Amino acid sequence: MTTSSKPPSPAARAHSFNAAAAQYAENRPSYPPALFDAIEDLAGHPLTGARVADIGAGTGIATALLHARGADVVAIEPGDGMAAQFRRTLPEVPLVRGNGNALPLADHSADFLTYAQAWHWTDPARSVPEALRVLRPGGALALWWNTSALDVPWIAEQSERIRIHFGIDRVVEQNGSGLRSALADPTGRLDFAHRRVRWSRQVPVDTHLANIGSHSAFLVHDEKSTTAFLTEERNHLRTVFPNGIVEEIYVVELVVALAP
Questions:
Q1: Is the model's pLDDT at 239 over the cut of 60?
Q2: Each residue of 106-138: pLDDT tens digit?
Q3: Helix/strand number for the chain, H first, E second
Q4: What contacts 237, CB < 8 A, 6 or more positions away?
Q5: How far apart are alpha carbons 197 and 49 in whole angstroms?
Q6: What's the rounded Cα separation, in Å, for the pair 152 and 80?
Q7: What's the confidence (pLDDT) of residue 181?
Q8: I need a surface site. Which of 18, 111, 164, 193 has the fewest CB within 10 A?
Q9: How far is CA 128 from CA 2, 15, 82, 124, 189, in A?
Q10: Rounded to the nearest 10 degrees, how much is the dihedral formed by the CA atoms of 174, 178, 182, 186?
Q11: What single-letter DSSP state applies at residue 119?
């Protein structure tokens, strides 16, 4: 049972990443090439040569892939720690401080706006109009999340242990259950198309633990309790993966909407 009597605020959870930016950059999963194929398919035009703003860019995991795809990309990031890590990782990519609720971008200036693991930190009542303001006609808003493949027994069991220990709040529920268009845009102004992309990676146990430990539910929790959980979780994983290599399996939930 979680030891916290009052769940941390969304703002506290959003800011928690700044102190763990290096851990985030080193251990979080990336995204498969098939995701970007799906984005281009749903958008109806390629990323190569497109003007792309990656919002809530964090340490630049998605930004680097968009840049490698040939996009003319600028990153938007509000957090000090994440921005500093981004600049160390991707010094050649422009970074502007800001967030999705008030984009520091000109009207109709982007072919794509992308949000990797970031849209749920915005207020759609503000971020939806901002997206429509910044996108050119026919431009695409692409939102995606790496979600755990809960049809895999060990992942489902771990997710339940995390739920019991840390508790569940609105953000975790949205990410864990798969994105729905109504959650992405409660205003109903956007018409989303939806794709799922399944993929996996193999990492050492310690990398996996550092990955899950970089999530906000862990970062805002009592350090002693979190350490105890991760120690016990290592024992569970050693039973499931006696060779010490964990196969993390993800389903990327992608939604794409076109600007009128």
A1: yes
A2: 999 999 999 999 998 899 999 999 999 999 999
A3: 12, 7
A4: 205, 208, 209, 246
A5: 24
A6: 36
A7: 61
A8: 164
A9: 34, 22, 24, 5, 8
A10: 30
A11: G
| pLDDT tier at 62, thresholds 50, 70, 90 | very high
CA distances from residue 243 to 73, 200, 204, 246 in whole angstroms, order as listed: 40, 17, 9, 9
Encoding tokens for residue 227? 């350490």
Which tokens hold the place of 58? 């964090």
Contact status, residue 95 vs residue 77, Cβ threshold 8 Å: yes
Among candidate residues 85, 87, 39, the one with its CA nearest the CA of residue 66? 39
Q: How far is residue 137's CA from residue 258's CA, in Å, rounded to a whole number?
A: 8
- The model carries a pTM of 0.88
Instruction: Please give the structure tokens belonging to residue 232.
Output: 């016990």
**Cα gap 83→144, rounded to integer Å:** 20
How do residues 75-87 score in pLDDT, each as one tens digit? 999 999 999 999 9
